């Protein structure tokens, strides 16, 4: 047996892991399973492309074996395996220079900051969070000799020849006090399902299952081996292989509900960035849609390994109703929340995903208007939030939102309203600032009715804020009928004389109302009612001022 010392950085890293990461020690299993999955991927690749490996048997699987009494767990795979040299260099040094530099800069209190640790792969060494002794037996594919690597995670490791029937790696963990909680089959199944359910290879757990023996009237233990993960990573298969039922099934397993989604968009990007996205639109809007502490519904995976499902960074807030998966090949497994916020890879995936979702919605709006109406009934309002917050996609969003109108049944699009414009109509008009009933009977609409001009009824509470920032749709001015300039469009010729006759009345009203109004003017916008209140062009209306305050602006 030969004794080796860890590279200084490894000792530092181990200290950091053991003393900083205790909040989530369960991730040790995710890391070890993902290493096994990588090793299986590597061997599969070689058996496909390399003559020397083509004849080797490849029976990919990952086995977990639990001994509850001894408090040990083995994680075995039939992957590429490691030679003696590999064991020394992969499990005794830190190859990545970035990590080395990072560690050398860490000092004192900074080391205790567990956020920092997410900046480099914890990987294999995370085993030492839960084990006081780790044994690795590995045989490299194509070699006959296997090797055993043993360490207590303190100063170094021992290495010696060993036996292994086939190529692959077995990691034996002797759980420490902290790790004892994982010597439990339920707990292990739960962790595997949580993080590794969609690893492409089957993961089996062998353990002593307690079952009730009806004849003997006692619980007996049987050693069983059961597959724990779904092993599908269904989203990684090509669209042509998948049936609607597959998509619906995954949706139900993601959301834990029984309802079918309204629709889904499955995209695979290859090129400078490699990722897969599968987004679902739920048939009914999530109940917490309008709560500040809403739950996000998009899960982030890295190479089929589950990373997190509660990051508000994955999609913009206005698309918070979307459910589904982002699976990236380019992010590190241990990407932290803090890193996600400024990560360029994720930013590109996010931008492309938003574009994709919006363009798919747009094509549904023309190809299946009936289904699109169902979508609008649930999600028109969040899309309007997007008009306010997502400047880059405003054009598309304007085509996606729908409006009530004085001229159309149900909901109408701006495109349709535009197509109904009168030959001499200068702008598209809308009214905001109240309930549908109040708006529909507003005196402000009289002149439009008289002239047979359509007015869109914007009765959502955010409409005023959102649309006051949008002056055009497809080259046409959008105007609020309660703003002074909308009236200018409708001016008729007789006005100057009329204003002259009304002058004394206007003066009188102005002095009576005093500071309560900015001005009193003669108007052509009314047909039957004697007067109405409008806002100056550049001034936020009273209601809007209220809303802005509520939104903290
Ligand atoms: P990473 O996976 O990010 O490279 P790890 O600390 O998890 O970092 O693993 C270090 C290296 O050890 C891996 O890159 C791999 O070469 C090797 N290794 C770890 N586990 C296995 C395994 N089960 N089979 C083969 N090689 C492995
Ligand atoms: Mg790893």
UniProtKB/TrEMBL annotation:
<feature type="binding site">
    <location>
        <position position="169"/>
    </location>
    <ligand>
        <name>ATP</name>
    </ligand>
</feature>
<dbReference type="GO" id="GO:0005737">
    <property type="term" value="C:cytoplasm"/>
</dbReference>
<keyword id="KW-0143">Chaperone</keyword>
<comment type="subunit">
    <text>Homodimer.</text>
</comment>
<dbReference type="GO" id="GO:0140662">
    <property type="term" value="F:ATP-dependent protein folding chaperone"/>
</dbReference>
<protein>
    <recommendedName>
        <fullName>Chaperone protein HtpG</fullName>
    </recommendedName>
</protein>
<dbReference type="Pfam" id="PF00183">
    <property type="entry name" value="HSP90"/>
</dbReference>
<feature type="binding site">
    <location>
        <begin position="97"/>
        <end position="98"/>
    </location>
    <ligand>
        <name>ATP</name>
    </ligand>
</feature>
<feature type="binding site">
    <location>
        <position position="77"/>
    </location>
    <ligand>
        <name>ATP</name>
    </ligand>
</feature>
<dbReference type="GO" id="GO:0005524">
    <property type="term" value="F:ATP binding"/>
</dbReference>
<keyword id="KW-0346">Stress response</keyword>
<feature type="region of interest" description="A; substrate-binding">
    <location>
        <begin position="1"/>
        <end position="337"/>
    </location>
</feature>
<feature type="binding site">
    <location>
        <begin position="119"/>
        <end position="124"/>
    </location>
    <ligand>
        <name>ATP</name>
    </ligand>
</feature>
<dbReference type="InterPro" id="IPR036890">
    <property type="entry name" value="HATPase_C_sf"/>
</dbReference>
<dbReference type="Pfam" id="PF13589">
    <property type="entry name" value="HATPase_c_3"/>
</dbReference>
<comment type="function">
    <text>Molecular chaperone. Has ATPase activity.</text>
</comment>
<feature type="binding site">
    <location>
        <position position="337"/>
    </location>
    <ligand>
        <name>ATP</name>
    </ligand>
</feature>
<dbReference type="GO" id="GO:0051082">
    <property type="term" value="F:unfolded protein binding"/>
</dbReference>
<keyword id="KW-0963">Cytoplasm</keyword>
<dbReference type="InterPro" id="IPR020568">
    <property type="entry name" value="Ribosomal_Su5_D2-typ_SF"/>
</dbReference>
<feature type="domain" description="Histidine kinase/HSP90-like ATPase">
    <location>
        <begin position="24"/>
        <end position="179"/>
    </location>
</feature>
<feature type="binding site">
    <location>
        <position position="35"/>
    </location>
    <ligand>
        <name>ATP</name>
    </ligand>
</feature>
<keyword id="KW-0067">ATP-binding</keyword>
<keyword id="KW-0547">Nucleotide-binding</keyword>
<feature type="binding site">
    <location>
        <position position="31"/>
    </location>
    <ligand>
        <name>ATP</name>
    </ligand>
</feature>
<dbReference type="InterPro" id="IPR037196">
    <property type="entry name" value="HSP90_C"/>
</dbReference>
<comment type="similarity">
    <text>Belongs to the heat shock protein 90 family.</text>
</comment>
<dbReference type="InterPro" id="IPR020575">
    <property type="entry name" value="Hsp90_N"/>
</dbReference>
<dbReference type="InterPro" id="IPR001404">
    <property type="entry name" value="Hsp90_fam"/>
</dbReference>
<feature type="binding site">
    <location>
        <position position="82"/>
    </location>
    <ligand>
        <name>ATP</name>
    </ligand>
</feature>
<dbReference type="InterPro" id="IPR003594">
    <property type="entry name" value="HATPase_dom"/>
</dbReference>
<dbReference type="GO" id="GO:0016887">
    <property type="term" value="F:ATP hydrolysis activity"/>
</dbReference>
């Amino acid at each position: 047996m030969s004794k080796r010392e860890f590279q200084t950085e490894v000792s530092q890293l181990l200290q950091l892991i053991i003393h900083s990461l205790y909040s989530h020690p369960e991730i040790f299993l995710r890391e070890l399973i993902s290493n096994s999955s990588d090793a299986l991927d590597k061997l599969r690749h070689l058996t496909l492309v390399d003559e020397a490996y083509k004849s080797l048997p490849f029976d990919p699987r990952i086995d977990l074996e639990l001994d509850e009494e001894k408090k040990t767990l083995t994680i075995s795979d039939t992957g590429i395996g490691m030679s003696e040299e590999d064991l020394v260099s992969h499990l005794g040094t830190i190859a990545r220079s970035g990590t080395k530099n990072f560690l050398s800069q860490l000092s004192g209190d900074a080391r205790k900051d567990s956020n920092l640790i997410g900046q480099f792969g914890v990987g294999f060494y995370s085993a030492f969070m839960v084990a006081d002794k780790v044994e690795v037996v590995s045989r490299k594919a194509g070699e006959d000799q296997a090797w055993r690597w043993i360490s207590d995670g303190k100063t170094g490791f021992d290495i010696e020849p060993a036996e292994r029937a086939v190529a692959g790696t077995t990691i034996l963990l002797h759980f420490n006090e902290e790790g004892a909680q994982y010597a439990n089959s339920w707990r292990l199944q739960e962790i595997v399902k949580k993080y590794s359910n969609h690893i492409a290879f089957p993961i089996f757990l062998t353990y002593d299952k307690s079952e009730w023996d009806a004849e003997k009237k006692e619980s007996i233990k049987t050693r069983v081996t059961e597959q724990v993960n779904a092993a599908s990573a269904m989203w990684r298969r090509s669209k042509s292989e998948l049936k609607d039922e597959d998509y619906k099934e995954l949706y139900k397993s993601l959301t834990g509900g029984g309802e079918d989604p309204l629709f889904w968009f499955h995209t695979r990007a290859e090129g400078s960035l490699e990722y897969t996205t599968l987004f679902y639109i739920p048939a009914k809007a999530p109940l917490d849609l309008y709560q500040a502490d809403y739950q996000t519904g998009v899960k982030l995976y890295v190479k089929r390994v589950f990373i997190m499902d509660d990051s508000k960074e994955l999609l913009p807030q206005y698309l918070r109703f979307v459910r589904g998966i982002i699976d990236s090949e380019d992010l590190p497994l241990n990407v932290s929340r803090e890193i996600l916020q400024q990560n360029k890879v994720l930013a590109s995936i996010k931008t492309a995903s938003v574009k994709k979702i919006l363009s798919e919605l747009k094509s549904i709006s023309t190809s299946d208007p009936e289904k699109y109406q169902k979508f609008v009934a649930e999600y028109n309002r969040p899309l309007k939030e997007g008009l306010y917050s997502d400047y880059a996609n405003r054009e598309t969003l304007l085509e996606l939102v729908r409006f009530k109108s004085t001229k159309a049944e149900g909901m109408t699009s701006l495109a349709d309203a535009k197509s109904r414009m009168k030959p001499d109509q200068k702008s598209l008009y809308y009214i905001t600032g109240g309930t549908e009933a109040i708006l529909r009977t507003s005196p402000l609409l009289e002149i439009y009715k008289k002239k047979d001009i359509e007015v869109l009824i914007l009765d959502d509470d955010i409409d005023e804020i959102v649309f006051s920032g949008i002056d055009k749709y497809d080259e046409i001015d959008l105007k609020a009928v309660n703003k002074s300039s909308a009236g200018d469009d409708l001016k008729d010729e007789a006005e100057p004389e009329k204003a002259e006759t009304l002058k004394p009345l206007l003066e009188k009203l102005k002095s009576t109302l005093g500071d309560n109004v900015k001005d009193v003017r003669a108007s052509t916008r009314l047909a039957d009612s004697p007067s109405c209140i409008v806002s100056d062009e550049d001034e936020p209306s009273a209601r809007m001022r209220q809303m802005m305050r509520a939104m903290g602006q």
